[in-house]
Amino acid sequence: MHSPSPIIKSSLIEPDGGELVNLVVPEIERASRVLEAQALPKVSLTNIDLEWAHVISEGWASPLKGFMRENEYLQSLHFNSLKTTKNGSSIVVNMSLPIVLAIDDETKERIGCSTHVGLLSPNKVLIGILRGIEIYKHNKEERIARTWGTTVDGLPYVDEAISKGGNWLIGGDLEVFEPIKYNDGLDDYRLSPQELRNEFERREADAVFAFQLRNPVHNGHALLMNDTRRSLLEMGYNNPILLLHPLGGFTKVDDVPLHVRMEQHTKVLEDGILDPKTTIVAIFPSPMHYAGPTEVQWHAKARINGGANFYIVGRDPAGMPHPTQNRDLYDPDHGKKLLSMAPGLDKLHILPFRVAAYDIVHKKMAFFDPSRAKEFEFISGTKMRSYAKNGENPPEGFMSPSGWSVLANYYQTLQTEDC
Amino acid sequence: MHSPSPIIKSSLIEPDGGELVNLVVPEIERASRVLEAQALPKVSLTNIDLEWAHVISEGWASPLKGFMRENEYLQSLHFNSLKTTKNGSSIVVNMSLPIVLAIDDETKERIGCSTHVGLLSPNKVLIGILRGIEIYKHNKEERIARTWGTTVDGLPYVDEAISKGGNWLIGGDLEVFEPIKYNDGLDDYRLSPQELRNEFERREADAVFAFQLRNPVHNGHALLMNDTRRSLLEMGYNNPILLLHPLGGFTKVDDVPLHVRMEQHTKVLEDGILDPKTTIVAIFPSPMHYAGPTEVQWHAKARINGGANFYIVGRDPAGMPHPTQNRDLYDPDHGKKLLSMAPGLDKLHILPFRVAAYDIVHKKMAFFDPSRAKEFEFISGTKMRSYAKNGENPPEGFMSPSGWSVLANYYQTLQTEDC
After folding, report:
1. Which residues from B are below 8 Å from A80, CB to CB?
2. pTM for this model (two decimals)
């Protein structure tokens, strides 16, 4: 049983809105709230809804206090930001993805005039209450068009979470009875923004640089992260800490699953490719939209709340191949450009990726040098997966060998299961 | 020949960015600039492009100084606003529509490495120069999805201006050699933002309330405008001036054409339905997107530059019927809601429409009274047009009789031409 962590006075970057939202009910009030919820109309959450409840309840989306009401939804959809107040003054915080809860006609009917609803997990356990609810139309086409900039078939989050969802959205103030857990052996990695901040304080970090990823770490990533640390030291920081922050929520079927990625990341640290003394590995509980330049803002904004003041951004962040055309869904430079201009992200230092590739001569991952372009090989995710599937090894120096074994084993198992 | 109007020190609302952009070349430099343009690669403008050049050159889009470069385009598309500076401080101005110039592959090829291009009007006359150009990809689907929130077939501006447009956008700083004119007998109504401001100063307006329209004025509109003036007087303003500001650029084929509307508006003022002493009728030169809640922000923002500090907003502003479904394309309340939350529009007072309808008992347009709902009739644009087409009169008191004659004659002529 967890209690909310105490708020530590911190020299770290301030959370959006000035205060980290924590919507977990204090233990002493839990029993009475559960009793209250039992008497309310119920809304059933999908796995993705539960991930969002997790995200909101821990303050990743601070100052958002629940699933969006219509005014928040419209601002997010049209402006990628929310107007709010801090100490009485008007401020703008970034909020690029609509964080909403869809319900169907039958559920809306059942809720009737109730002002609060109980929330049921996919396992039919009461996990919280949504208070002061507002129900408004879920115009799916408009939501999709404005979030993804396309309405093409085959967008993974749309297929999984929106098309199947109901015709109504329900917003309100969230409270959850307990910190949300998944019991998959990885909950200890799911540090809340407050727990991360406590850990950064404990380590006396004077700079925190976040690396969002949903892929295995190869030595090009490691080069980049180590080089960033070196730069920060040169800039005069004494103790920059890396937050290696794999996304842990919904991902598309051909992405490497979370438990494999976490095992791979662990090996990379064990092998010393990244230094455990200056690295924290934790899971970011958000589901993935694959909404490119719109989503990368969410990835960055949430890390402000998690205590990061530097954010590393690469080519085509949160992107994917176009579902029906032979090209990237997004212009690979737009994510980086938007991050540098997005409302509410001014206080985060954006660190653009330098391109790393496999240096054939020196047999290692190195920053690409255009003057000897022919001596470099770009190893894509697809190529990496094809090595693993075929039981081949990638070139020496591409990835820590024990990290590679994790991947290779996973893909070999997959193939066995396929037969 | 016009010279740019002198900037008058004004107590009116400040234009966006602090200064009204005026991109018309001073007369003394005109000859040399034309000579320069003759030697440059040329870009041909469509009618809609020319309307935008007009809009930009007069400062309706201040502080925008030309067709958007990619950074401006992306901010407009994703944030409906632009970051800029005023007196060294960072500010945000509203900018909800991408104001862009599309070129095709062949034109891009022809421009080559030139940094400036000459602009040719649809009549093949050199009208200006675009300087410091930047050419970037025109992802039409993304532009449409993010601007309209739908990619459905049948959006009038998309069909007219985007689908046919080239695969590239060209941004840069605009200058035009002379104020843009259309020689259609209506140019005198096309007052620039500076000319409007001068006129408001001359009349010693202490409040300016703008009414955007693209339809004939009926007595319900007039009631609303007169009631707004009464409210402003009650609020303590001494001389509120109404800017009756019909949109003059591209409209869809079944809208009433500009010259008919202008004639109708003139009759309404002649009949004293609106008071000429406290009303300025002028043409807003922008083309129409029919992009609902996204476009209404543009309509409001441009009127800030035109000197208005109050903006009247109705049901479903800048909306239209869904092209393929039996419903409005946009939620009719979203426009009003977004205006109240949009970045950069804080300084404009938004005045929501009260609903007017035909009061059958008192034979006049009146504010709808739900307690005697049955005594009201809603006369839609479609119904109004069907009266005019069938040679019938609308109910007494719906519209000034001489204003109605203008409409009736137009639709009768149309039918004759159809036969």
Report:
1. 78-79
2. 0.95
